[in-house]
Amino acid sequence: MSQRKRSKGSGFSQGDDGDEDFNLSQMPTHSQVQRNLERRSQDQVNQKVSELVQFLLVKDQKKIPIKRADILKKVIREYKDVYSEIVNRAGRTLQQVFGLQLVEIDTKHHIYILISNLPRAEGENLHRDNQTAKLGLLIIILSFIFMKGNSPKDSAVWEFLRRLRVQPGERHEVFGDVKKLVTEEFVRQK
Q: Which parts of the sequence belong to the MAGE domain (predicted)?
């Protein structure tokens, strides 16, 4: 029999997935969430939405299952009274900006994944349409800049691209010279 201790300030117990004390029966109703939202600063809620989108994208990139307990513990924290609204807004952002949908694949352990809603491009079409590929890279970079408050350091942008396996010092088969593309072509296009 395992002992479960309530962690200070977290609001949920540390068990198998840290999610036992935060089940759906304790979720606030829609009207309660709306009242709770009115008590919160919209900038703070929007910041949590941005943090959640970034958290989900990193987890998805690393191919790590996304647990609700991790979302609560690492991102939502003291905002769990508006959890559903933050997750809904993050879901809309993921859909509109990245074409991704947050899907619960395990309802018992509350595990999620991101799936693409974008149509698949087939074989040669990927290489023929370099402008579409460059536009996609530009959108990813602009989204990253937006998520970082519109003024990230250059080094943060390059590190982000490295995580996506787009190396600034190496020639990319679709984008060519990535550093030149970003620093010259994208800058010239404003």
A: 45-190
**What is the enclosing helix (H) or strand (E) of 105?**
strand 100-106
DSSP letter for each residue of 113-182: EEEE-SPPPPHHHHHH-HHHHHHHHHHHHHHHHHHTTT---HHHHHHHHHHTT--TTSEETTTEEHHHII
Residue 8 φ/ψ region, left for φ over 0, alpha for ψ in the -120 to 50 degree band, beta for the rest: beta
Reading phi first (left if > 0) and then psi (alpha if -120 to 50, else beta), residue 21 is in: alpha
Write the single-letter amino acid at 48.
K
Per-residue pLDDT, 68: 92
- Residue 66's beta-bridge partner residues? 112
Six-digit token pair at 74?
């690492």
The C-alpha angle 51, 56, 62, rounded to 5 degrees, equals 125
What is the model's pTM?
0.51
d(Cα 176, Cα 153) in Å, to the nearest integer? 23
Q: How far apart are alpha carbons 60 and 63 in whole angstroms?
A: 5
For 37-52, the pLDDT digits (tens) are 677 778 888 898 999 9
**Distance between CA atoms of residues 70 and 64, nearest Å:** 11
pLDDT digits (tens, 9 = 90+) for 156-167: 888 888 888 888
Query: Domains in the chain, please, with CATH?
Result: 30-116 (1.10.10.1200), 122-188 (1.10.10.1210)
